[in-house]
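User: Hi! I have a protein structure encoded as tokens and I'd like to know what sequence might fold into it. I'm fairly new to this, so please keep things simple.
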């Protein structure tokens, strides 16, 4: 019978996370699991089990202002008052938190398994930290400019230039040539597929010598809904690249 060890911990005074690892392989390659907006790390327990079955170690933090973290109780009210400012704060702090977790784990390489907002954050982490060795971004977008435009941010907004500067799409070259899987529905009206398509197009020339490392899978007539197929493809993608001898 398969057995997994689940432990909860906190880094500093605010960053709550759990680790799930195979009982016989506690130092398995780590995969950071990043949840979506208005969710929490426990939403990824089933995904963590799937990663463990593939010989990987799941590390799932609460994103900033989510779960057990400071500001979670007022997050939704703040989003109503200042959606752009609050989201930008969540994205920025969560990206910093990923670096802190990687430092804490002490692993030279880790994977990313990221859903929706988690993937929006994950793209920034992949751009900013070379220890992210492989990633699966699910129902996510690297185009922060387009996401901001979708909520009314135009070129006259005081945050516009900063959003352009930090957008993972702007910094796409920093991702190559690490393995990247993107899974998107072509009818997703919450996180439109256009950002993933733009990144895929921008990266294709940089992956010419490594075509098996870049994949955009499009789900026809599919909205912002996570599926078992997305989980299975993501786990397989990460396991084959982080633990090829499994």
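Assistant: Happy to help. Inverse folding works backwards from shape to sequence: for each of the 246 positions I chose a residue that suits the local structure. Here it is:
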């Amino acid at each position: 019978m398969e057995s997994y060890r689940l432990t909860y911990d906190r880094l500093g005074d605010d960053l709550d996370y759990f680790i799930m690892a195979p009982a016989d392989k506690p130092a398995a390659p780590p995969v950071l699991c990043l949840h979506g907006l208005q969710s929490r790390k426990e939403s990824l327990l089933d995904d963590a089990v799937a990663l463990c079955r593939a010989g990987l170690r799941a590390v799932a933090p609460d994103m900033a202002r989510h779960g057990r973290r400071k500001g979670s109780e007022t997050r939704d009210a703040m989003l109503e008052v200042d959606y752009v400012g609050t989201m930008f704060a969540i994205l920025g702090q969560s990206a910093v938190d990923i670096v802190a977790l990687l430092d804490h784990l002490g692993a030279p390489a880790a994977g990313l398994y990221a859903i929706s907002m988690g993937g929006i954050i994950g793209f920034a982490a992949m751009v900013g930290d070379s220890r992210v060795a492989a990633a699966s971004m699910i129902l996510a977008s690297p185009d922060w400019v387009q996401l901001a435009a979708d909520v009314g941010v135009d070129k006259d907004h005081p945050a516009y230039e900063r959003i352009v500067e930090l957008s993972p799409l702007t910094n796409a070259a920093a991702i190559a040539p690490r393995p990247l899987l993107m899974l998107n529905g072509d009818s997703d009206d919450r996180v439109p597929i256009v950002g993933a398509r733009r990144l895929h197009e921008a990266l294709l020339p940089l992956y010419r010598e490594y075509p098996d490392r870049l994949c955009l899978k499009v789900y026809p007539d599919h909205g912002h809904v996570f599926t078992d197929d997305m989980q299975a493809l993501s786990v397989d993608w990460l396991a084959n690249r982080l633990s090829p001898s499994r």
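A useful reference point when you look it over: The domain at 4-242 is CATH 3.40.50.1820 (Rossmann fold). Feel free to ask if any position seems puzzling.
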